[in-house]
């Protein structure tokens, strides 16, 4: 997964092709972020020298059995595994539906495995080299959950700074500012559907500039091609859906801890537990 910036889309082409925005033709466009591929599970006679990796996955399976999505992430380091064991780890994990990049206090690339709720998190050095490599059992990786908004600010509205040519940006900013100050503001997601609201390109550009560009970009294929971008405004995300031509068909602002579309649900965790148990039976 290479270092990629996915911008918030504004301007021409940023609106749905139909008035209701419901004609969805989902297909993954070409992208530098990782896409789904099924794992290549080796035969039992092909795992010689990879006993540590097999033991690691038994540990992963045990943690999955106990894990609940409201709990902190369980972190299992891969540092110290030799090339043969890492090769088996790569084969077993594969690439799932969600990819993430974090470029903030640290740089990291994150890939969900084919087992939902099992994540590969690689922390990068200044030259892009992997400095720390871990598996996390989690609804969402700990770095994204805990550090996305560590330097974020609350939205302050100053009428004197709002240009006269804006149409709907001022009331939208007021709505965001009010919502984020409510007690337990992230207890339930608050979604503003820009695709259903009248606005101009200048409105979108001003919203984007005011909310800022945060450290996290998420690409989710679980509900079509969905790109999620954090902002520098506390708990505010852009959530955008694209069609097969990579044209924006649904554009929303969401106030939440992390958008649900990126989370592994409890039933996903349970399904992953069963699948991993079945895989490990091969090597019993």
What count of domains describes the coordinates?
Answer: 2
What is the CATH superfamily classification of the largest domain? HupH hydrogenase expression protein, C-terminal domain
Largest sheet, described in full?
10 strands, antiparallel
| Strand count | 10
Level-1 CATH class name of the largest domain:
Alpha Beta
Share of helix, binned = 25-40%
Mean pLDDT, rounded to whole units? 85
Helix/strand order, N-terminal first: HEHEEEEHHEHEEEEH
What's the helix count?
Answer: 6
Tag the structure with descriptive keywords.
single chain; 284 residues; alpha+beta; Ribosomal Protein S8, Chain: A, domain 1; 2 domains; ten-stranded antiparallel β-sheet; 10 strands; disordered N terminus
Task: Outline the fold blueprint.
Blueprint: H1 51-66, E1 74-77, H2 83-93, E2 98-103, E3 107-112, E4 118-124, E5 130-137, H3 142-147, H4 169-180, E6 190-193, H5 201-211, E7 216-220, E8 225-230, E9 236-242, E10 248-255, H6 266-281
Antiparallel strand pairs: 1-5, 2-3, 2-7, 3-4, 4-5, 6-10, 7-8, 8-9, 9-10
């Amino acid at each position: 997964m290479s270092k990629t910036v996915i911008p918030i889309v504004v301007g021409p082409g940023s609106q749905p092709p139909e008035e209701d925005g419901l004609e969805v033709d989902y297909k993954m466009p070409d992208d530098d972020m990782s896409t789904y591929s099924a794992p290549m599970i080796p035969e039992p006679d092909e795992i010689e020298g990879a006993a540590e990796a097999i033991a690691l996955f038994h540990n992963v399976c045990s943690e999955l059995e106990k894990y609940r999505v409201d709990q902190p992430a369980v972190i299992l380091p891969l540092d110290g595994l030799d090339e043969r064991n890492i090769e088996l780890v790569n084969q077993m994990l594969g690439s799932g539906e969600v990819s993430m990049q974090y470029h903030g206090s640290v740089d990291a690339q994150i890939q969900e495995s084919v087992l939902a709720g099992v994540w590969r998190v690689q922390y990068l050095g200044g030259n892009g080299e992997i400095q720390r490599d871990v598996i996390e059992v989690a609804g969402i990786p700990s770095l994204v959950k805990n550090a996305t908004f560590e330097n974020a600010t609350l939205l302050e509205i100053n009428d004197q700074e709002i240009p006269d040519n804006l149409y709907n940006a001022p009331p939208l900013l007021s709505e965001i500012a009010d919502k984020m100050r409510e007690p337990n503001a992230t207890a339930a997601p608050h979604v503003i559907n820009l695709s259903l609201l009248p606005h101009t390109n200048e409105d979108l550009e001003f919203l984007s500039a005011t909310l800022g560009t945060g450290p996290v970009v998420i690409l989710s294929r679980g509900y079509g091609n969905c790109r999620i971008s954090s902002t520098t405004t506390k708990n505010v995300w852009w959530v955008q859906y694209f069609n097969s031509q990579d044209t924006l068909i649904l554009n929303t602002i969401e106030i939440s801890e992390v958008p649900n579309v990126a989370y592994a649900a409890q039933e996903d965790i349970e399904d992953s537990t069963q699948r991993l148990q079945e895989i490990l039976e091969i090597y019993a």
